[in-house]
Design a protein that fits this description.
single chain, alpha+beta, three-stranded mixed β-sheet, 5 strands
């Protein structure tokens, strides 16, 4: 979160709130924090154990290790995975063995197996507080509402958890400020993201329509250059990717999209 973005939030505050914000910054903004050796404080995150070492699908994941995120169902090219709710309300993947071709994509993208965890010893920290009326509707000092308003005023969308039928919770897309109340407040239950993921994909495809790479001017000769650039320059992308990618894998991806 950079200073320019924080300035936009500050400018939208009422004069009274700006005075409070200045007092908070004056009191806490220059406080030195002691560096902590997080390697000693944070437990190590290890990949989940599998039921069968030779199973390359999420059927190998034990139920206690599944978080019900639904990534496997979304990534499956055969639409062979459905997320189903058990008697206790937990969501787990169910594989249609007639459709499954054992490609392994589901397990390669499962966060229970492809564990990526990084912790910063000295993270950037900020303190903020919105007007009383905004803070009554939510939590975290009203930061979410202020950030959401900026995004919505810019023509964007906001995604968050909303109650469905007063009992269950699911993620929804918000386009109007008056609909923000749906996703205000903390919900201490698991949210269902199955319905919103396809909507987000449709939205992204509308913003950036999918085309073959050659339609954008890419040539066969560019594939090798692009692969090298990804492997040597896109270190943040590669380090945070759920699936470890080799140069040969990246090249094959470019070929399939060409």
């Amino acid at each position: 979160m950079n200073q320019e973005f924080l300035r936009k939030i500050y400018d939208k505050m009422s004069p009274e709130t700006q005075v409070k914000a200045k007092k908070i910054v004056k009191k806490y903004g220059k406080r030195k924090t002691e560096s902590v050796d997080t390697k000693k404080k944070v437990p190590e995150f290890v990949p989940a154990k599998l039921k069968k070492a030779d199973d390359i699908t999420v059927a190998a994941i034990f139920e206690q290790d599944c978080c019900g995120c639904g990534v496997c169902a979304e990534i499956c090219p055969q639409n062979a995975i459905q997320m189903e709710t058990d008697a206790e309300g937990y969501v787990y993947p169910q594989i249609d063995t007639d459709k499954c071709v054992k490609c392994g994509k589901c397990l390669k993208h499962c966060p229970a197996v492809q564990v990526k965890y990084e912790n910063s010893k000295e993270p950037e920290s900020y303190v903020m507080m919105a007007e009383d009326e905004i803070r009554r509707k939510g939590s975290a000092g009203g930061c979410f509402t202020l950030l959401s308003n900026i995004i919505l005023e810019s023509g964007g969308y906001v995604c968050g958890a909303a109650y469905k039928n007063g009992t269950s919770v699911e993620h929804v897309l918000i386009r109007k400020k008056e609909d923000l109340d749906q996703i205000h407040n903390i919900k201490y239950v698991k949210s269902d993201i199955r319905a919103v993921c396809p909507e987000i994909e449709k939205l992204l495809n509308h913003i950036i329509p999918k085309k073959a790479l050659h339609e954008y001017g890419m040539t066969q000769e560019d594939i090798a250059d692009f692969t090298e650039t990804v492997m040597t320059k896109q270190t943040r992308l590669m380090n945070n990717n759920y699936t470890e990618l080799t140069a040969e894998t990246v090249k094959e991806i470019y070929k399939s999209l060409f």
